[in-house]
Structure formats: C-alpha cells, structure tokens
Amino acid sequence: MTQNIKHKILVVENDNTSFIYYREVLSALGFTVLWANNGKQGVDIFQAEPDINLVIMDIEMPIMNGYEASEIIKKQSPQTPIIVISAYAMKSVKEKVLALNCDLFLTKPIRALDLTNNVLKLLNK
Questions:
Q1: 3-state secondary structure the chain
Q2: Which fold would CATH assign to domain 2-123?
Q3: pTM listed for this prediction
Q4: 55-112 pLDDT tens trace
Q5: Which of 1, 68, 78, 105 is the one with CA 20 to 30 A from 122?
C-alpha cells in the first residue's frame, strides 16, 4: 500500500494555515512534507530534492506565481504529478492550469478526504 512507501511531497503555498492543514493531512499518511512559501522557492526546492514524488501548488503567491512555477517544474520533470489547489474556481483558471500539463485542479477549501484520495490516486499511477 502507498502509505508504506516513503513519498516526499512539496507543498508550494504562501498561506501558513493552508500549509499546516496540508501537512497534517499528508503527514498522517506517512508522507514527508516540504514547504515553499512562494513559486521561486518551490522551484529551487524541487531542483535541490530530486526524490520529490508530487507537488501541491497554489496559484497566487509572491515572487513567482503558481503558473510559472508549475511550468518550470513540468518542463524539468513531466512525470511528477502537480495538484493545483486554488481559491479561484473560474473555468479560465482551470483551463490555464491544465494547459500547463498539471495533473489536477482543485478548489479551496478542500476536504481532507478529497486531498487524500487525489494524492493517493496520482501516486499510484
């Protein structure tokens, strides 16, 4: 089962409360959770940690937004799943995210069960 495999997840999210929530949900599954509080830091951590299995990305962040960061990460590592979680539920945002080859677009607030199920589904591809 996935929980027994040591997966590393990078959460790129500038909202501390959202990060703590994601960390609690994902840590309960046995995942190692890394945090970047802006897109530039997320790209830097992703490049420094080649064993990251999945990225959770916010859109609106300082320094570098989630669109730019996702595009860089997907170019470097197309096989790494990216889940974009955003408060923006507009169809245009979802289309832009999926056009970057991100694997999934979810809107905030996200329930723990939905986060868990989607992470496990993408890691079991």
A1: CHHHCCCEEEEECCCHHHHHHHHHHHHCCCCEEEEECCHHHHHHHHHHCCCCCEEEECCCCCCCCHHHHHHHHHHHCCCCCEEEEECCCCHHHHHHHHHCCCCEEEECCCCHHHHHHHHHHHHCC
A2: Rossmann fold (3.40.50)
A3: 0.91
A4: 999 998 999 999 999 999 999 999 999 999 988 777 887 788 888 889 999 988 999 9
A5: 68
